[in-house]
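QA checklist item 7 of 12: single-chain prediction sanity check.
[x] sequence parsed
[x] length recorded as 473
[x] structure emitted
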Amino acid sequence: MWIRKSDRDRETGKATPVPTQIVGNEEFDPLPQTPDQRRVEQRIFELADHYSLKLGMSRRAFLRTSGGMAVSFLAMNEVFGPAFMVSEAEAAEPAVSREMWPKKEFILDLQTHHVKDSMAGPVVFRSLTGKFGLNPLLAGGAPAKDSLHRANYVKEIFFDSDTVMACLTGAAFGPPDKYVLAPEDIVATRNLVNEAAGSRRMLAHGIGTIASPAWLEESERQVKDLRIDAWKFYTGDPLKPWRHDDEKLAYPFYEQTLKLGVRNICTHKGLPLPGPGAEYFRPDDVLKAAKDWPDLNFIVFHSGMKHMMTMLLPGESGIDESGNIPWTTEFCAQIKTAGLKNIYLELGAVFGHSVVTHPEVCGHLLGQLIDAVGADHVIWGTDSIWWGSPQWQIEAFRRFQIPERLQEKHGYRPVSAGDRELIFGLNSARLFGIDVNEARKAIPGDALSRMKLAYQAAGEEPSLTQYGWIASV
């Protein structure tokens, strides 16, 4: 049985700055909370009670401060072993966090979501047919208006996090009127935010399926009329699966999109949806396409990671001592062998999954991605606002270091400050032709930044929740 994480948090008061179990967006069955994660959750509350009492605050108020974020990582280090750079001083004095983490990165989140205003009930293709191993309890109930819709999206992404630019994405399953967001909706949000800000804060994905007979005409419309910034595809659509290396189906589109000037192709790989198209989510079809089309950039969402392990016992990582991550490890080796320079690996969902389930898995993930393609080809994405505000992922990535044991055994190198700058946003800025220096000048004084300052001055209210689904047991 699944329940909404935000509903659980509201009913139980168990919201924490960093989630203590995996959150799903209806595309996969969320992993139940592990024993280690229950220990982390308990320890967060114990530490929060201790420091909030010293500061004369309620636990809830304390957890909304930088001290609340600090005790979350202190608890994770206690349970999982040292993986996060954090000090007890941060929990006791908010100014310490500001000194340690001055927040100077240019953060561009290439995978963010909200749902269209008219959306009620389940918000992904699972609601269309009920055929693919779905949770029948998803058949009813509408998301709260303050959760997954546009207004709360702007608050969670831009007001409650250090994100300065974001790309809004969607999924093309079933008929267009059933899409979570139609291309027009995605572009409307981009345009509204950019116009309100007075600067470029958002990018928009074009969506659809290459398997559609009318795709060439539709893709031209999205480029010329909607002026989309990049493409987002699901090759494993259970109704119309296809492959990137299909010369008859995909290659005519690649030729056309190059002529139209859209060179960035984002593709959902890994995290397969159950059903007849599951194997089409393997990332291997990207290899030949990237080799044959060197002027296109293939941005592999979720880094091709097949799944987020199985149920973990205390202290277990869910993968063997070799560090093999199903699909991702093999794909990384294939990219490296082929010497391809136009494949990029994105962290959406899989960083969040692994870093809160077992940091050792996250260490293998980052170590293998950077070794295969270089830090300059790893892309920041969070899959928010399913995960709520992306701030906890930003804080986790700032602080996380590949455990020394893994560095010594597998040859992974430490993640440097320069690597983090590249991954957080400089890589995506390069792909999309964004002048970071000019953006750094424009964004601090734009209308959206002024609204954020006013929001903070009035007493910011981060939600400390996530809007996806969790296993109830």
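[x] summary fact logged: Confidence is low (pLDDT under 50) at residues 119-143.
[ ] second reviewer sign-off
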